[in-house]
Amino acid sequence: MTDLGVAVVVEDDEDVRNLVEAVLSQAGFEVHSAAGGREGVDVVRAREASVVTLDVGLPDIDGFEVLRRIRQFSDAYVVMLTARTDELDTLTAFHTGADDFLAKPFRPRELRARVGAMMRRPRQDIQTTQVSGHEAAAALATSQSPVLHHNGLDLNPETRSVSVDGVAISLTRSEFDLLQALLKGAGAVRSKTELVRVVRGDYYRADAYISESDERAVEVHIGNLRRKLGEDPVHPRWLQTVRGVGYRLSPAR
Q1: Whether pLDDT at 110 is above 80
Q2: CB neighbours (10 Å) of residue 253?
Q3: Is the model's pLDDT at 131 over the cut of 80?
Q4: Which domains occur in the chain, in start order?
Q5: Could you tell me the strand order of the sheet in which 153-156 lies?
Q6: Contact at 8 Å (CB) between 9 and 21?
């Protein structure tokens, strides 16, 4: 069986914890677990996890706070699990840095498929990469891969680095993938449904159901991306909203 690295299960419900442990173990992970949030943070740090499943409703600190703490030192893939169906939970999870969100009860095959789709995406999280503007510019100049340019913004798919007017910008995986998709679109409108598939990977096939919450998550990512780029909401330099449809690249200046 392929060794996929370490997975940590942070879940206070013993039955759910045992189920998730079994799913991830069968998938090829070395699995460790914790029943509380503080313990979970310690285990993720100690084991250098590559995947974390994280319950929202933990007994000591909630899953969102656990995720915030994990994101201070780790770029592990994180799937949030919850029995609550409030759309706000979904949006908060993505805003905090989750890679996916799954409602309980879930099918084991679905969890495994989502984790598999995440693992096929580049693992490096731009948010944890500390580079100067000069370093970013040098990387963009020397890379052999085609660099995407638009209105002072440079995106290097190979190094997964982004700069604006020579200054490095820190982005999450999802933000980077969305920006890259829009740059490659060269002004074509990309629907929210298309962009959900960009964010979530190939788990979301053309025939897969995509909910309003999935599309709202894209809106959150785009909002965060605009904020980090310093976008002018009145006269956008890079990302235009096409109301009722999705987004496209602003015209070249």
Answers
A1: yes
A2: 7
A3: no
A4: 6-119 (3.40.50.2300), 126-249 (1.10.10.10)
A5: 148-150, 153-156, 161-164, 167-168
A6: yes
